[in-house]
Amino acid sequence: KESEAFYGCSRALYRGGTGVRAKGSNEMKHIANIRKNTIGLVAVLVMATSAAAAQRSELTGTKWQLTHVNGRAIATNKAFLEFDAKERRFTGNAGCNRMFGDVYVSGRRIDFGSVATTKMACADPSISRVERSFTSNLESVKRFRRTNSILEFLNGGRTVLRF
Length: 163
Fold this sequence. Notes:
Order of helices and strands: EEHEEEEEEEEHEEE
Strand content: 35-45%
Distance between the termini: 75 Å
Largest sheet: 6 strands, antiparallel
Number of helices: 2
Helix content: 25-40%
Shape: elongated
Number of strands: 13
C-alpha cells in the first residue's frame, strides 16, 4: 500500500507506512536541517530577550535616590533617577532642577546621552554643587553595578555616584 505525504513544496512517497522514501529524500533532509536551525535560532533569541529584560529590570521600576557623589554623602534628599527602558530614557531631579535624557544600557555598560535640566535658581550653594557634580558624573559614567538595593555608577573602576 502506498500513500503520498506533502511537506511544503516537497513530496515524499511512503511505502506500506514504513517511512521508506521513494523520492525527495535529499529535500526532506534539507527541510529537517532547516527546522533544527530554526529551533536553535529561536532558542537563542528567547535567551537573549530574557537576558535583556532581566538587565532592564535591574534599573527600571525603582526611584533611585542619590546618596553619595564621589564617595561623599550628599546634603539633599531630592536628587533621584528613574529609568524607562522601553523608551531608553531617564528622568529625575538633580537637587533643584528636573533632569532628563537618553540612556543606553548593554550588559553592565551604561551611557547617558546629553543630560538636560531645567534652569531654576538653586538657593542653597551646597545643593548647587551636588547638582553640578551629579549631572557631570552622569555624562562620564561608563559602567554600573547593582548589589541588592544599592546602585553604583562607575567611571574607570571608581564609584562616582551611589544610590
